[in-house]
Design brief:
heterodimer; A: Fumarate Reductase Iron-sulfur Protein, Chain B, domain 2; B: Glutathione S-transferase Yfyf (Class Pi), Chain A, domain 2; Rossmann fold; 3-stranded parallel beta sheet; 46% helix; binds iron/sulfur cluster
Chain lengths: 175, 320
């Protein structure tokens, strides 16, 4: 596992964003991040942890899994560090070894991609029902479901891509 | 390019609606298509398109999301078109990036990016596609596309209003609006083509709307993030962000918002009641798609652009 973590750091420094060495901890990324108050490590701390080679600590915290990829952080960094891209890379690596700290996110993504693998499209009614069933909170967001139905903003029958065998194969390969 | 894309010519733009525009954002889909018709812009939906994979696929594996997205590009090419209009901001980011990886002339930055291209191409072949020919995709978001077309919008608007003595009924509706434009995070991304506008203080939406006689108010929170798809797993984080955006709209003395992203629209409109409850507020701010307002300004009825499908009813524009 040690080699796994150190290879992530190596790849970031070499390919993903060599400019990370220019981070001088000004904190602008964190100031703009819409989620920094629920992140266990703030974006600037994550940059510091990458520099220090502490990738394992990053993967064991919730930040990279909650990150929205809105890229406010990257767009405001005075040193042009691409914070969001670095976090995206670590997140993808964490999925490869199935280390996903935030259980609700893991459930949601798996359910979503399973559906895409089956139909080729995403299907919101199945998703909402499925999420509520797995989480055991049947009434979670019921108000929203009722509203969507009332406005006929949902297809009650899932749509299928005609040529979807290849899609199923590819989704399985990564899930 | 675009002026070659019109109904009478051979050229059409390929249209990728994406999953949201077929369900929760059906109003965006219909109003955009009707607007394109009025503007005489030819489009054709990509045959057998699939889900781009969006946030879940992106976060699980970049290879997966760009493969799923690239399949749609290749399908457009099969129809002989390499220019794609992609209204959903989330899909746009994925299709745009996929085009970057697979376009023949792209200058990829390093070995990792080349590996990404090779994997996407191998996956496409595995799905049975021929990817030997020159690939030269250009993906447009609605905002960039309408901005390029803003002259035509202005001309149409003047044509409709020329020689009229009284304001047309639709125009009267629009006069009551005091909108602010909310861009969300769409323009922030450093590697996106949407950087055609100032990413912190953009004005492209305002400029487009002005062509159709709609004047917008200034707004502090134009490019804050709404929380996007986190609403399904971490609802309160999203309600908090959306509350700040609505609050700032009120401070600007607005009575509605204009957006071009299905996720922003959902978080601000569908969840406005939840925000009101949680924060003990009393917001009643309709959240329009820019295509709905443009459509009305260019003569469509409120019903035909599906204003009745908004959750926060814009009723006040009729009877206040
Ligand atoms: S904004 Fe840039 S330089 Fe400042 S702390 Fe964040 S990454 Fe470092
Ligand atoms: S991309 Fe992620 S880390 Fe950066 S500002 Fe957005 S949510 Fe925060």
């Amino acid at each position: 596992m040690d080699e796994f973590y150190s290879s992530i750091q190596r790849d970031i420094l070499k390919y993903i964003d060599p400019g990370i060495i220019n981070c001088y901890q000004c904190g602008k990324c964190t100031a703009g991040c819409p989620l920094s108050d629920i992140f266990e490590y703030k974006p600037n701390q994550i940059m510091m942890l990458v520099q220090a080679g502490r990738i394992e600590s990053i993967i064991n915290s919730n930040s990279i899994f909650l990150c929205l990829s809105c890229e406010i952080c990257s767009s405001r960094c005075p040193q042009d560090v691409h914070i969001a891209k670095i976090m995206q890379y670590i997140r993808n690596e964490a999925w490869k070894v199935d280390k996903i700290k935030v259980a609700s996110i893991k459930r949601f993504y798996k359910l979503f991609l399973k559906e895409v693998g089956i139909t080729g499209r995403s299907y919101e009614p199945g998703l909402i029902a499925g999420l509520n069933l797995i989480s055991g909170k049947l009434l979670n967001d019921m108000d929203i479901a009722v509203k969507i139905l009332g406005k006929r903003k949902i297809n009650l029958i899932p749509e299928f891509v005609k040529d979807r065998k290849g899609i199923s194969r590819i989704v399985k390969k990564y899930l | 390019m675009q002026d070659t894309i019109n109904k009478n010519g051979l050229n059409k733009i390929a249209y990728y609606p994406g999953c949201s525009l077929n369900s929760t954002a059906i109003d965006f889909n219909i109003s955009l298509k009707k607007l394109l018709d009025i503007l005489d812009i030819g489009y054709i939906e990509i045959d057998d398109w699939n889900c781009c994979g969006t946030t879940p696929a992106q976060n699980v594996s970049s290879e997966l999301v760009y493969t799923l997205s690239a399949r749609n590009l290749i399908l457009a090419k099969k129809m002989g078109i390499q220019e794609i209009l992609c209204p959903c901001v989330s899909c746009y980011n994925k299709l745009y990036k996929a085009a970057y990886y697979i376009n023949t002339a792209s200058k990829l930055k390093n070995k990792k990016e080349e590996q990404m291209r090779d994997t996407i191409i191998a996956n496409l072949k595995d799905m049975g596609f021929n990817v030997e020919e020159e690939l030269n995709f250009k993906v447009y978001s609605v905002i960039e596309f309408l901005y390029l077309k803003k002259k035509i919008i202005g001309e149409k608007y003047n044509e409709i209003n020329a020689g009229r003595e009284n304001l047309p009924a639709n125009r009267v509706l629009l006069e009551k609006l005091k909108p602010v434009c909310y861009y969300g995070c769409a323009l922030l991304r450093p590697d996106s083509a949407l950087r055609f506008d100032d990413f912190e203080k953009p004005t492209s939406m305002e400029e487009i709307l002005e062509e159709a006689g709609i004047v917008c108010k200034n707004f502090q929170f134009k490019t804050e993030c709404c929380g996007a798809i986190l609403s399904l797993t971490h609802k309160n984080a999203v309600l908090k962000l959306s509350n700040m955006i609505l609050d700032s709209a009120l401070e600007s003395d607005a009575n509605c918002l204009v957006v071009f992203c299905p996720l922003c629209q959902q978080n601000l409109d569908l969840r406005q009641d939840q925000i009101n409850k949680l924060y003990k507020k009393n917001y009643h701010l309709p959240v329009f798609y820019i295509t709905q307002l443009l459509g009305i300004a260019l003569g469509l009825t409120p019903r035909s652009v599906m204003l009745d499908r908004l959750f926060v009813s814009p009723e006040f524009i009729k009877n206040d």
